[in-house]
Amino acid sequence: MKPAALEDAALLARVAEGDEAAIESIYERYGGACFALARRILNDTQLAEDVVQQVFLAMWQGSGYDSRRGAVSTWLLSVTHHKAVDAVRREGTRRKRLAGEQALLEIAAAGPGPDDEVWAHLRAQRTRDALRVLPAEQREVVLLAYYGGYTQREIADLTGLPLGTVKSRTLTALRRLREQLGGISETRPEEGRPA
Amino acid sequence: MTTHRDAEHEPWEELAAGYALHALEPDEEMTFSAHLETCARCREVLDEHALVAAQLGALAQDSDAHAPSWRSIRSGIVAPDAEGPAVSPPAIASLEEQRAVRRRQPRLLAAAAGVALLTGAALAVWQFSGSSPQSGAAAAIASCHDTPACHVIGLDGKAVVLADGDQARVISRGLPARSTGHVYALWQMPTHGRPVLLTVLDSLSEAEASPPAGLVLPYRDTSAFALSVEPAGARPSQPTQVVAVGNATA
């Protein structure tokens, strides 16, 4: 396990013992990414804050994180995504969801934010590049699902595609992205260097 | 070259992709969750998809919005007098208020019910492998899914009720820890009439289903199930602080 992952695991162990400083440290590391994801899906700052609070409340109450299944950051983004999708469906904010190809392209084309760290910039740039080279119809189904919070059945209704086509395009798209992004580490580049 | 075995497994891999994006319908979600317990290949594929999904999530940078400070959100996470990782139940709308909201959003009913199931299942996916302590609960859900008379009802993503014949059991899916001196109460909401108390529970587990409680009314006459937090020691006549509710499935 790499140093940052070890640190995260140690912090999580302390969180399980009720150490508030530990969960604050994890929040300082990953709270911003979780908030950005929730806000992008919900298009609502208050709802996004609620989602982030739910994510860290769940962690405080017993995370359920399994280190065999990936990095803490991956797990946190997955839980955040799930709760944000839950909220967008529950709150009836579908009208705000990203539905147009223009909006979807915006995500793929956006440049890095001014606060990006170098490693995050590089990783995000490669992800955008990978999205750009996907056929438009594959990019659309993935982004409608991930950022729009739509189920595949809803995407089929929206696009007029057969449900089976939506499913096969989604799988093909994720496989291609995985191939494109296969060399990207979940953790910072310097973590792989020998001490 | 695509082998016959690969082709046979392709539908599961399609479900894995939808699962990783949280984009499956509730029935598909439950089917895949059950399959995941027995398929190492799908667990591996899902982990790979989850990593891709996280990288998509990392694109959500927004220089115009800043995350709230820890200080501003800590009160909702860490109970002021907490001795450990436990918090008081959140203040939420009453059962009637929640149901009123649902009546105003008929188009979202199916999605909301699905999301409730989805949340529990997807949070559990991280725990479903190997000797995970979640196995008992997951097995109970999978067994219920395969039993015609058994219904899996998600309660706002915080709990799952397994209504099997004339009995009901509950599995926590991240319910807030009850505060000292309080218990959980499981309610059956009839199609017409007031909520009926089924049982009072000192605790609820994510690893195992609660002991079965007898339904007071036939399942076909049930519109919803709900969990509330009540003061310990008294048998409540009506729910006071509802923490999760879910519509009975057909």
Low-confidence stretches of chain A: 185-195
Q: From N to C, what is the helix and strand string of chain B?
A: HHHHHHHEEEEEEEE
Structural class of chain A: mainly alpha
Oligomeric state of the chains in view: heterodimer
Topology:
The complex is a heterodimer of chains A (195) and B (250).
Chain A lengths: L2 H14 L3 H23 L2 H18 L9 H19 L10 H9 L8 H16 L2 H11 L5 H8 L3 H19 L14
Helix pairs in contact in A: 1-2, 2-3, 2-4, 3-4, 5-6, 6-9, 7-9, 8-9
Chain B lengths: L3 H17 L5 H11 L3 H18 L12 H4 L21 H10 L4 H16 L10 H11 L4 E6 L3 E6 L2 E6 L9 E9 L5 E6 L11 E2 L7 E10 L9 E7 L3
Explain this structure.
The complex is a heterodimer of chains A (195) and B (250). Chain A is built from 9 helices and no strands. Chain A has 195 residues and is an all-alpha fold. In chain A, helix 5 crosses helix 6. The longest helix of chain A has 23 residues. The C terminus of chain A is likely disordered. In chain B, strands 1-2-3-6 form a 4-stranded antiparallel sheet. A 4-stranded antiparallel sheet of chain B has the order 5-4-7-8. In chain B, a hairpin with a 5-residue loop joins strand 4 and strand 5. Chain B contains 7 helices and 8 strands; from the N terminus they run H-H-H-H-H-H-H-E-E-E-E-E-E-E-E. The radius of gyration of chain B is 20 Å and the shape is globular. Chain B has 250 residues and is an alpha+beta fold. In chain B, helix 2 packs parallel to helix 6 and helix 2 crosses helix 7. About 22% of the residues of chain B have low confidence.
